[in-house]
Write a structure and sequence with these properties.
mainly alpha; 68% helix; 0% strand
Length: 101
């Protein structure tokens, strides 16, 4: 028995996602923490530099968030396309009862 095909952008269930966790949360958190350390331990002029570092960490986090939001939109469009193809073949939407004639 063959396994159903999975789109290439989806990881198999149970696949290790630790590199993504590091990229999405640990890296931006470490950059923000470094900026806070610079701000706390530096002089008054280091406040601006630390603020820039904190901003860079937040930018990393939000760029990752925007990428995931865009990918989620792609998945929703693909699901809508599959539902429309089903409708074209069967005359009703998936999950609805077929029309009585």
């Amino acid at each position: 028995m063959s396994t159903p095909e999975r789109p290439s952008h989806q990881r198999p269930a149970g696949a290790s996602g630790w590199p993504l966790i590091v990229l999405r949360y640990v890296l931006p958190g470490a950059v923000v923490l470094a900026g806070l350390v610079v701000m706390a331990l530096g002089s008054e002029t280091d406040l601006e530099g630390g603020g820039g570092i904190v901003s860079a960490g937040l930018a990393i986090f939000f760029i990752n968030w925007l990428f995931r939001a865009g990918a989620r939109g792609d998945e929703q469009r693909e699901a809508e396309d599959r539902a429309r193809e089903y409708f074209d073949r069967h005359g009703h939407w998936p999950g609805e009862a077929p029309p009585r004639h």
